[in-house]
Write a structure and sequence with these properties.
The complex is a heterodimer of chains A (about 475) and B (about 400). Chain A is an alpha+beta fold and about 475 residues long. Chain A has helices at about 20-25, 40-55, 80-85, 105-115, 135-140, 190-210, 230-240, 255-270, 305-310, 315-325, 340-345, 350; strands spanning about 1-10, 15, 30-35, 65-70, 95-100, 120-130, 145-150, 160-170, 175, 185, 220-225, 275-280, 285-290, 355-360, 365, 385, 390-400, 410-420, 425-430, 445-455, 460-470. In chain A, a hairpin with a 2-residue loop joins strand 20 (about 445-455) and strand 21 (about 460-470). The chains are: A alpha+beta (about 475), B alpha/beta (about 400). The interface of A and B includes residues 429 and 464 of A.
Amino acid sequence: MRGIISAAGYLPYWRLERSAIGAFHGGRGAGTRTVASYDEDTSTLAVEAGRLALASAPSGLEPETLWFATSTPTYAEKTNATIVHAALRLPSSTAAFDAGSAVRSGTGALRAALRSSEPAVLVVSSDIRTGPANSPDESAGGDAGAALVVGDESAGSVIAEYLGGASVTHEFLDRWRAPGEARTKSWEERFGETQYVALGQQAFADALKATGLVADDLDAVLVAGPHARANGAVAKKLGRPVGVTLSDTVGNVGAAEAALQLATWLETATPGQTVALVSLADGADVLVFRTTDAIGSFAATRSIAEQIEAGNSSLPYAKFLAWRGTLVPNPPNRPEPARSSASAAGRSIDWKFGFVGSRDRATGAVHLPPARVSFVGGNVDDMDPLPMADAKGTVVTFTIDRLAYSPSPPVIFAVVDFDGPDGTAGGRLPVEICDTTPDRIAVGDRVEMTFRRLNQSDGISNYFWKGRPIR
Amino acid sequence: MSSHGIKDRVAIVGMGCTPFREHWDKGTDDLMIDAAEETFKSAGIPKDDIDAFWFGTAQSAMSGVPMASALKLEGKPVSRVENFCATGSEALRQACYAVASGAYDTAMALGVEKVKDSGFQGLNAFPIPNDGTNRTLTAAAMFSLVLPAYAEKYGVDKDELRRTVARIASKNHHNGARNPRAMYRREMDVDAICKMAAVAGQLSVMDCAGVADGSAAAIVCRAEDAHRYTDKPLYVKALSFVAGNGSGLIDSSYDYTTFRECEAAGLDAYAQAGITDPLNQLAMAEVHDCFTPTEMVLMEDLGFSKRGEAWKDINAGVFDLGGQLPVNPDGGLKSFGHPVGASGLRMIFEAWLQLRGEAPEDRQIATADRGLALTHNLGGYPGEMVSFVGIYGSQLG
């Protein structure tokens, strides 16, 4: 049996009330969309989703391949999946590839994983959907990551078996964007809708044929794609209940939409339910799954439903615009950060990307970052690596820095004492705290670590870990 | 550890110090020339008779060449030294040891910083290529961590403590107002300081050192030769230096109410100088008030106040110009300004003036007859700093 072993979604903490867009430009808006913070990019969203999916997968699972799909990659030429690979501390034998930069790539990577013979494949997808101010994408889009561990029973219990599917490919212009541009342009809406209704119906019929099912066998359909009207029209034609609606709370998350819908549906699915995931992007792809008994014991590390509830919708529209670069506020009069050194970063890859410290074998003293000489007792080269990315910690003291350079001042900074493994002390590190506001932080607050992009310089995105309040 | 010191083996026989200002019209060379010329005159020694030079600058120049070039030194050894904000003190320390070793008869230590050419506010460190994981917090924010920690540990009301450190700024401005070389010469009252907007934690810009350009210098010789140059030399009683290993940042037992490096440097300096009761034996102290909470903690680290009581002593006026132990009678970093590489020598310049009775009348300390002055100069951050403590006396023995 092959299918989904683990599934997770990552929603950024911040939400934009669509009414805030309307209040500024004139007009109305209902619901919220998720907003990646200024220090998140599609790679960090993918990392957070991947962490959650692996945390719910059998421990020690090592995928043979990592696929990363997004329509807004941070790098061209350089692979972004290797950043995700490093932050997830996957073995070097795990191959890591980017899947295109089209919305369809998210479903394409999932399809490839399902049809592969490798015991386990990790498929992560993410997107940050913006567009110009007051554009449809700004309002209807959302930012998120999704991750699916795909494999067969040898790697872990399959919670949703892949029954088969079908794809239809068709070249036509509905939406397009030149690399580097913010604005996605689109052809007349009705043209795309007409195309997608036909493509969706054909792929759906082919998928039923391939799986030997009839439409009534399906408990739900999930319809994903960048064309909202087409999604609705296709769903209506298919005549089955729509399993997931995220448009009011999350927004359409582009290349991650199909996987996020599937992960959301799986959170409440019961054994023996059948679902067709229909993805409408430059053609149509349909993947059919049936949940197994194992879904009953599958527990999301942090459910998407929980994350929808935990969002903070107080984000001012002006800040949203600044974070996305639509509005360029005056920066603090401090030097901009220098680019990080490739060779220095290469030497500290476990620390920088994996947040792995070291622990003195003799004294237990924890060193963040890892050190060769112990600050307790002075032992040399007698330490074990200590992965701390999943450690929790407590704020000992904190400060708000209104002078330091930041893409979104002020900087909230805390001295954090970490819990070590098995009740030991986990050491201390002064860290930047994200996803909060200066009035919300207090001594004694509990924090966890999250992978972020600290800054960019010379086109280099500088990644490291920050603390985030546990919610 | 053996720290024997060089008590009474080396004397300071000449000093100079430029005004600390936004010297838009003076470059690093001009500042060095001004400070050096004043110092040569002060000691009555022409530059060619100085055997060796120690040139302290944090980031205004590299190597000994800029100093040799500015002063047109001929065939002289010039060592550029750098040790964060304690760079000026480090230059003096090296010059003193060189003379004490017998390698040279005379040496000059000069510190300079041209801060205001960067185009940015505040002090900004040179970027050394790194893996991008280093903190980018400002020094103000790092030192602002002291106040809540201290309030918590000693049960002091946060607002009262905020007023206490504002009182430090107010005191230093009072002193600086009486110092023609100081950058900020306006008195500031505690209420006005407390009303200013916070920039880091509870600290406002009025809790931060002034950012200035400037230079200061000293000439040292063997103690037995001192009276060839001046009737009133300052004898070097102690020179102590500690470079912290940064463990405070990662050590969960560190509580941000003390600077271990400063305490250690102070104890070492007192041992070298034979001081047992600094509060009553010292005539004055110049300490590194880069931010107001720093000065408060230093009163305890240097043994002037008991642990947890510096805030009371500050409020009682113990460290005022007319107090039991005047601290920063020249206005300190706060009011005099902080050209990084020059500050350590600027502190000693105040000891030079006060112990020789040459400070302007309106800031002359009443305790000068105790004959001993301390300078304390740090660089870095709580948990990760260097600290210098020097002690100088007007008499041998």
